[in-house]
Amino acid sequence: MLKRIAAAAAPFLYAFAAHAAGGAVEGKVSATPEKYLKDTVVYLKEVPGQYAPKTHAMDQKGMEFRPHILTVTAGDSVRFLNSDGVDHNVYTPDGDAYNLGVFPKGQAREHKFDKTGVYTQLCSIHPEMLAYIFVGQNPYAVPVKKDGSFKIESVPPGTYQLAVWNPKLKADDASVTVTAGKTASAEFALAR
């Protein structure tokens, strides 16, 4: 009995140990023009491993999607909430092009993201509402902060391609080597 429990727990303990022994990648992104900086995600392109599916939340509150950018991993689901006093809808023309219909305050709809890519989130009732869901191959992706800084934590040791996504601007990828307990650095200058 103890052998079976130990065997069943081994993958989780290994994943926990790898997570605990990871390093970090941090840095800064600048953008020209600067107004597009808020729409930026920094991510590691390919990180081997299997990632347990999670459910994330994106709210519709104050006539906007919150958060403005949500990063998830392929296989994850997003629960779309409506906290406004008006009906909203959630749809995207991207990827598998879904439309979750119209729903009132207090209700929610859920969608599973099986394919990597970026999905623009729109509301057909309120066309000024816009957000992005970045679906990566792995969970090592973060939106930049208002000042352009970013930090990706608990990265397994290794050498990776670090990339930036922005709907309007571009920057070349950077190679980073992550060492357990250490922080690697990178900077990006986004431009047209």
Describe the structure.
- It is built from one helix and 16 strands.
- The N and C termini lie far apart (61 Å).
- It is globular and about 50 Å long.
- It has 192 residues and is mostly beta strands.
Write the layout of secondary structure elements.
Layout: H1 2-20, E1 23-31, E2 41-44, E3 55-61, E4 64-66, E5 69-73, E6 77-82, E7 88-91, E8 99-103, E9 108-112, E10 117-122, E11 130-136, E12 141-143, E13 149-155, E14 158-165, E15 174-178, E16 183-190
Parallel strand pairs: 1-16, 3-6, 5-11
Antiparallel strand pairs: 1-13, 2-12, 2-14, 3-4, 6-9, 7-8, 10-11, 14-15
Question: Briefly, what is this?
Answer:
The protein folds into two domains: 21-49 and 140-192, Sandwich (Immunoglobulin-like), CATH 2.60.40.1120; 50-137, Sandwich (Immunoglobulin-like).
Question: How many DSSP-defined strands?
Answer: 16
Cα-based radius of gyration, to the nearest Å: 19 Å
**Biggest sheet, spatial arrangement of strands:** 12-2-14-15
Strand content: over 45%
User: Shape from CA axes?
Assistant: globular
CATH class bucket of the largest domain: Mainly Beta
Number of domains: 2
CATH-assigned homologous superfamily of the largest domain: Cupredoxins -  blue copper proteins
SSE-based structural type: mainly beta
Number of helices: 1
Order of helices and strands: HEEEEEEEEEEEEEEEE
